[in-house]
């Protein structure tokens, strides 16, 4: 009996040890699986720098010189080329109650930009806040005087039509002048302009501050200019950006059909004054005034100021990303509709 009891205990002990071993092996296997699937903190991507005009982190060089291009916004010039890669776009009235666009490129450059249009003195003034290489095709008398004075690095289609600037066969003048980024670089070499620059950073919100923006609901915003042109901005909650439209047509890139999407829309009131029979304007870009800042689906009624030649929020800041700045005549608040 004693021998049978000892044999039985030995069998139970062997089974128990085997079960424990299997359990430890399974735990080890599970541990290995968890360890393999769990990301290491050291694997998180780090960035060496930040683009000064978008606030977006990068490992690329950030010392490229800004390039400012006058872009046609007549309905016959749409859709335009290259606007989807602009860091900042200023939309400002020219004559004839039509707006033109000053597109500022720094973090990325499109292959082709246009249609390129003629300059006015206040567009040049805006470009100089970024020490930008200025690109246009034509000029007003005031703008010509500035550009020919040698104080602004620039190339113009009046001098390089058919060489640096090419005429497209799918549009008629003055809506068919285009330039490539490669030809802009060639132009900079021709006029001896520097191609690198160290730009000061625009004011940007931190990630935590971005989440705390408060204001009026502004998912759909429409601006109606005096001539009847309408500009629309529609907020996408998932992407946290505004999509732009002109006269109810989405603003897209002609070649790629990429829509224009923006983290910031800044609507700025400034004093406008017509100065000649052609309807050319003088615009006060230095005194500051009322503004509406659209971010994260809400509108903040704030002020704007000119800081070292740049139009920026007075008491606010931009969300990292691309920005569109609509400069409108004073008293146009009633022409901005939000819902």
TrEMBL record:
Keywords: Signal. PROSITE patterns: PROKAR_LIPOPROTEIN (PS51257). Residues 53-192, 221-325 form the DUF3048 domain. It comes from Fictibacillus barbaricus. It holds the Pfam family DUF3048_C. This is Lipoprotein YerB. SUPFAM superfamilies: YerB-like (SSF159774). Residues 1-21 form the signal peptide.
């Amino acid at each position: 009996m004693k021998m049978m009891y000892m044999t039985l205990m030995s069998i139970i002990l062997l089974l128990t040890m085997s079960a424990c071993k299997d359990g430890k092996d399974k735990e080890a296997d599970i541990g290995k699986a968890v360890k393999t699937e769990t990301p290491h903190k050291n694997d998180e991507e780090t960035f060496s720098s930040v683009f000064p005009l978008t606030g977006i982190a990068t490992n690329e060089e950030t010392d490229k010189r800004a390039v400012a291009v006058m872009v046609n916004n007549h309905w016959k010039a749409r859709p335009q080329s290259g606007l989807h890669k602009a860091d900042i776009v200023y939309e400002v009235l020219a004559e004839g109650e039509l707006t033109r666009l000053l597109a500022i490129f720094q973090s990325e450059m499109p292959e082709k930009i246009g249609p390129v249009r003629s300059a006015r003195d206040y567009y040049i003034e805006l470009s100089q806040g970024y020490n930008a290489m200025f690109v246009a095709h034509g000029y007003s008398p005031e703008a010509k005087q500035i550009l020919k004075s040698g104080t602004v690095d620039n190339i113009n289609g009046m001098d390089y039509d058919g060489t640096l600037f090419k005429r497209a066969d799918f549009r008629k003048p003055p809506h068919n002048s285009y330039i490539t980024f490669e030809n802009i670089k060639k132009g900079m070499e021709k006029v001896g302009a520097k191609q690198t620059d160290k730009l000061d950073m625009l004011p940007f919100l931190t990630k935590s501050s971005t989440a705390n923006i408060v204001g009026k609901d502004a998912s759909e915003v429409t601006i109606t200019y005096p001539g009847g042109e309408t500009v629309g901005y529609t907020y996408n909650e998932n992407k946290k950006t505004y999509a732009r439209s002109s006269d109810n047509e989405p603003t897209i890139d002609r070649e790629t059909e990429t829509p224009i999407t923006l983290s910031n829309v800044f609507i700025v009131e400034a004093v406008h004054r017509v100065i000649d029979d052609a309807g050319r304007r003088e615009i006060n870009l230095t005194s500051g005034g009322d503004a509406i800042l659209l971010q994260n689906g809400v509108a903040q009624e704030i002020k704007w100021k000119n800081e070292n030649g740049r139009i920026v929020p007075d008491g606010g800041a931009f969300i990292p990303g691309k920005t569109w700045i609509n400069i409108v005549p004073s008293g146009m608040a009633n022409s901005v509709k939000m819902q």
